[in-house]
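We both want to read discrete structure tokens more fluently, so let's practise on a single case. Once you have written the record down, we can walk along the chain together.
***
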Amino acid sequence: MSQNALNSAPGGQAPGATARSCARTRRGERHSLRGDARHGRWPARTALGVAALLLGAAGGLAPAARADEPLGAFFTQVNTYLYSDGPNAGARVLVRARQTFTVIDLTNTADGTVWYRIVFPERDTRLEGVGWVFEAPHEILERQGGNVTVYEEIPRARTAVGETVSVPTQAIKQLNITEPSTRFAEITWYKVQYSAKIPLTPWIRAATGIYRPGVSAEFITRVYANMVARNIKVDKVKRLLSGVIQVGDSKRDVEWGLGDPLHVREETAGDIRRVFWQYAMVVVQFENDVVKQIN
């Protein structure tokens, strides 16, 4: 059986620079998994509706990424600074090692350094202004939470989007002013006002910790606390927090590294009991409760 490895990007490694291998699984090989649909994994992003699809298909007017849709989690390994306005820009906030944050954006600077934008709930900032949305008032109400992309001005040029901001739905106030789209009869723009306190979303350097795409900050926090309580060695803690499992690991190790499996099946051959844990992109085979093979 072949191993299909998809490594999450650890500190300092560029996003997307994931290691893939197709080789016979043998002792000493490792595997990591980039998320699945269970236990702290974020579901796939969904479209913002027919309006978004029409605008995006027209060329250049796809909605901005929504800040309420997490990309993953970041665990700090050292004391480090957060930067309020961008990589190495704005006010600095010192954070301690062994903290976990939700990641909502990422970027590369000119020198190739990877930075993540995180949610920092310990501090907030005032968000207020006036703008335009293409979601009708009833569509916003039906959301029952989440954020709405507000455009500072109605995009009129084919490729010009302009400034946007992601605003909590409960902070939106309808101004009862509408304007039809000059490009699509199906689109109506609604003028809104917004005012809300939102958590600070500063930037952190990737090399200062571990990034886990597709998992929640709560999952990482819980796993770390469980491993510390059981005096797990530091190297193993780092490996499992990175989502890397290997032959010889226990079931508990795999749960810490990958979370709950999507499906479990068992088979017995003589005195040997084999258990198979299936995840979105890997199957882990146990023999007598120890990882024997990773496919």
Q: What stands out?
A: DSSP finds five helices and 17 strands in the chain.
